[in-house]
Amino acid sequence: MVKPLARGIIKTSVGLTLEVRRAAIEAGEEIQDLTAEVAAERLASSARTRRVKADGEVAVQGATAG
Fold first, then answer.
1. CA distances from residue 2 to 6, 9, 11 in whole angstroms, order as listed
2. What is the distance between the alpha carbons of residues 29 and 21, in angstroms, rounded to a whole number?
């Protein structure tokens, strides 16, 4: 009688552990996706506000830096 109960508890525990791990992996993937999106947006924004002229000068928001 104890053995089937213990087996059920262990089986449930293992199942819950696997579900928690799966959820953690998915959350980590979501964070990585969001991080990549933000980095791409920042890079695109930086590229729009900072342009390198052909002669090597850098134009930053309408100003010229030598």
1. 6, 11, 14
2. 12
